[in-house]
Amino acid sequence: MVGDDTRRGVKRKRKKRPPFGGGRKSGRVSHDDRPPRGVWLSEDVQNYFSRVLEVERQGFDSHEDRVCFARNVFEEMVGKEVEYSCSGLVSRVTEALVPASDDATLARTCDAFAQQLPLACTDPCASHVAQALLLESADRVGTRAGVESDARRGDGTINGAPSFQVRRGAEGSEALAEFVLSVGRFLVADLDRFVWHRYANHIARSCLAALTGVECGTNGRQKPQGGQRNKVR
């Protein structure tokens, strides 16, 4: 009896139950292909981009085939460019195909991202696409054009950096240049916050490099002259 009473008075330790969600810490990014922020892709969309990724990895017979393939993929995203890019799967596919897109396709995609810059610059997946679009746009529309007379210095430079102008005549060149400037204006408006943001920080650095022609290394110091990018005006 004494033993029973003793056992009866002992409090059993309850097993800790895992929190809701299977014990995953809040804020941890899932490693599957499901997009964050509660945006879920349909099974058909996921299967489509899975096939696209497989084809991209296999390669193409010619550059023209890759350009045509990229055009078709981006057309499937019209109206949902940013939403789809919030998926890790679509982000990888889109980022890989940005360099292969023609000027008109690139301009249309940039315009879609320009309409949703707050999300595009801060989302863990979409921010990679936004950065790729920014760098590709800057490379296409920037062209060396000598030095402007009203800002000419004795050493033939403007504020120590080469002068660049937007290449005229190319389809979508004005839209691409405007996208680079729009991203710059958006980031500068709240730069003190974005420089500390995990994802927007990389876009801010890329934008500064594109606009100034000076690319910084990982330690924040200026890279050698060979690492300069085109300046967009």
From TrEMBL:
Protein name: Uncharacterized protein
Organism, scientific name: Ranatra chinensis
Residues covered by region (Disordered): 1-38
UniProt entry keywords in alphabetical sequence: Repeat
SUPFAM superfamilies: ARM repeat
Keyword Repeat attached: yes
Skewed-composition ranges (Basic residues): 9-18
Keyword Repeat attached: yes
Database matches in PANTHER family: NUCLEOLAR PROTEIN 9 (PTHR13102:SF0)
